[in-house]
TrEMBL record:
Residues 35-82 form the HTH cro/C1-type domain. It holds the Pfam family MLTR_LBD. GO terms for molecular function: DNA binding. It comes from Saccharopolyspora elongata. InterPro entries: Cro/C1-type_HTH, Lambda_DNA-bd_dom_sf, MLTR_LBD. This is XRE family transcriptional regulator. It comes from the Bacteria.
């Protein structure tokens, strides 16, 4: 990710704010650009216009945490956006080397296999599926070979599946919402790992192959998708409404364990139980994920 990403992010956040949103009076003067001017943002943040301009132009690296926090408050950034701002303004540069394949520890793989009543999968830094259990595979990608995550060349990419695989698109009745959140998370990850060539390659590929991805990527929104609700339209068991949680794997900060459950007594719970039965899974499903 180049230095221009910081300026583009700051400009996009400035553009979404109106003077009246932050207590400024415009006196009816016609504005040439949407949102706040640089001068207005600098005033709100308590920094000089010259310094803020250099920061937005990528000419001032390693801004202090205090300055970044002041700018974040002026732009009304949420916690995720503020973390993304820090990643862009103070990147941790890594030596360029060929990325090593991600792998799942044997104990985590054993845990997945033992959770036969809960759809579960392990996702890597670049949204590749590193492992899944039988029910997780049947829920999200039954049209793919179950053993594909075990082969580096064939590891399913959730990003490519969402934008380039028609089976996955049909799985999400609210595909646009799913795509919007996915791209926002991918941009957050790209900011954390600016020197990862595989992330850059993934973004470039999707930008060329999917106009929808390119349009969403250009919005520069960020979001950390750690929990929520997903609506699915499964080809075997029909509509599902499931809660999900993405948990960071201990000692593997780049990996997440994603789990799905249905509300007790709901049609979705019955459908999930039916899916488990169809692949020889356990009949009893847990009521909910730990809060």
């Amino acid at each position: 990710m180049d230095d221009g990403e910081l300026g583009a992010f700051l400009r996009s956040r400035r553009a979404r704010l109106k003077p009246e949103d932050v207590g400024l009076v415009s006196y009816g003067v016609r504005r040439r650009v949407p949102g706040l001017r640089r001068e207005e943002l600098a005033q709100l943040a308590g920094v000089s216009v010259a310094y803020y301009t250099r920061l937005e132009q990528g000419q001032s690296r390693n801004a202090s945490a205090e300055v970044l926090d002041a700018i974040a408050r002026a732009l009304r950034l949420d916690d995720t956006e503020q973390a993304h701002l820090r990643d862009l303004a103070r990147p941790v540069r890594a030596k360029r080397r060929t990325p090593r394949p991600e792998s799942v520890r044997p104990r985590l793989r054993h845990l997945l296999d033992s959770m036969d009543a809960v759809p579960a999968l392990v996702i890597g830094r670049r949204n590749d599926v590193l492992a899944w259990n039988r029910l997780g595979h049947a829920l999200l990608a039954g049209h793919l070979e179950f053993g594909s995550p075990n082969r580096v060349a064939d590891q399913p990419s959730l990003s490519r599946m969402l934008f380039l695989d028609p089976h996955t698109r049909e799985l999400y009745p609210q595909w646009t919402d799913e795509a919007r959140g996915h791209v926002a998370y991918l941009r957050l990850v790209a900011g954390r790992f600016p020197d990862d060539p595989l992330i850059a390659g993934l973004i470039g590929e999707l930008s060329m192959k999917s106009p929808e991805f390119a349009e969403l990527w250009g919005r520069r929104r960020v979001r950390d998708c750690t929990y929520g609700c997903k609506q699915l339209r499964h080809p075997l068991v029909g509509p599902l409404e499931l809660e999900y949680q993405a948990l960071q794997v201990p000692d593997q900060q780049d990996q997440r364990l994603e789990l799905f459950t249905a509300e007790p007594g709901s049609p979705s719970e019955a459908a999930l139980r039916l899916l488990g039965t169809s692949i020889g899974g356990a009949a009893k499903l847990p009521a909910s994920l730990p809060g």
